[in-house]
């Protein structure tokens, strides 16, 4: 009996020592840094199972607390606001995209480049220009292979800063939680709006 009690006490002590928790928090903003409120954010476990949900507040902030450390989590902002495809897309955006494609004006950020990839092919090409024109002219009312907005980690970068056409490292929305992780931030990218 004494051995059993000792074992139970040992187990409880171990649980106290190892079951540590931490918080993942961050903010969703537009490219002009204005916060986006009301965005549903899902937290998935290593098995892509939904374990928590939060909605961004007026500051665009979300948080998940009391998460067991030593495990992998993925933060996934949901496209729940039904932003019109046409919102923010004009001929000026087509001109900017054309200048990028022609090499006249390099994209200022990977996010501008990503916003132009409206067919979700991974690169910005004349095909994207065609689709943007068709949307502006009312021939299409959506981008078939892309939602109207996408969410990218703010630490996304060009794979080769000297050559935007080499592609984008989209950053990681999955992390192995070790300690409190603030500033796990996202940009809301309005597809087709290269001049936010
Ligand atoms: Ca494309």
UniProtKB/TrEMBL annotation:
<dbReference type="InterPro" id="IPR036439">
    <property type="entry name" value="Dockerin_dom_sf"/>
</dbReference>
<protein>
    <recommendedName>
        <fullName>Dockerin domain-containing protein</fullName>
    </recommendedName>
</protein>
<dbReference type="InterPro" id="IPR018247">
    <property type="entry name" value="EF_Hand_1_Ca_BS"/>
</dbReference>
<feature type="signal peptide">
    <location>
        <begin position="1"/>
        <end position="19"/>
    </location>
</feature>
<keyword id="KW-0732">Signal</keyword>
<dbReference type="InterPro" id="IPR013783">
    <property type="entry name" value="Ig-like_fold"/>
</dbReference>
<dbReference type="GO" id="GO:0000272">
    <property type="term" value="P:polysaccharide catabolic process"/>
</dbReference>
<dbReference type="Pfam" id="PF13620">
    <property type="entry name" value="CarboxypepD_reg"/>
</dbReference>
